[in-house]
Amino acid sequence: MVDVIESIDAAQVAERLAAVRERIDAACARAGRDPSGVDVLAATKYLAVDQTPKLADAGVLLAGENRVGSLLEKGGLPGTERLRWEFIGHLQSRKVPDVLPHVSRIHSVASDSVLRRLERHRDLARPELDVLVEVNVSGEEAKSGVAPEELDATIEACPFPVAGLMTMPPAAETPEDSRRWFAALRELADARGLRVLSMGTTQDFEVAVEEGATVVRVGSVLFR
């Protein structure tokens, strides 16, 4: 279990964020991409609630939370309204109405029950809300996400604009081991004209960027 990060220094987070951006710039150069097309999302799952406002002080623009209760706590603190909040964790259908008023994007739409709840409670959503469909590109039984062959039906049934796709590859010994899964997600998105690819975390975001990520979800590289 990962320990909660009880204290962060905004200046230090700003330095680490700049270092992440430099690594993204280098990955984009290798791939012939414009680095302005990659957003850094600060994943706050293990960050203590009262430390969250420091993210905005550090220059973080985009924050993502995995747990609904933590999202409501952290997003309700003074200062955190400067952050754009997105939900990046597994979304239970019964939690949909709790999430909708508080986020600009949901990264993890992956079931018929969630789609039905999104439709039922669409009046609670922010006007700008869009979603990403989570795809289980590796076919792991334990992984969330729709199978690639179910993707078109999921997009068609979604009551909100589908901006793109998200995936979590299998646990890997090296970042390079995840490349084929990132490439597979990019191919699925390209075939459907979807522009957003949320893929890559602290351990493998550079490979994800080389394969087309437009959002990388990083936590420990910013906080520890």
Keywords:
224 residues; alpha/beta; TIM Barrel; eight-stranded parallel sheet; 9 helices; 16% strand; globular
Q: Mind explaining what this structure looks like?
A:
With 224 residues, the protein is of the alpha/beta class. It is 35% helix and 16% strand. The protein has an 8-stranded parallel β-sheet with strand order 7-6-5-4-3-2-1-8. It is globular and about 45 Å long.
Task: Provide a short characterization of the protein structure.
The protein contains nine helices and eight strands.
The average pLDDT score comes to 97
> What is the oligomer described by this structure?
single chain
Helix-strand makeup class: alpha/beta
Biggest pleated-sheet summary: 8 strands, parallel
Radius of gyration: 17 Å
Number of strands: 8
Individual helix count: 9
**Name of the CATH superfamily:** Alanine racemase
| Global morphology | globular
Low-confidence stretches: none
- How many domains? 1
- Which CATH class is shown? Alpha Beta
Gap between N and C termini: 15 Å
Report the helical percentage: 25-40%
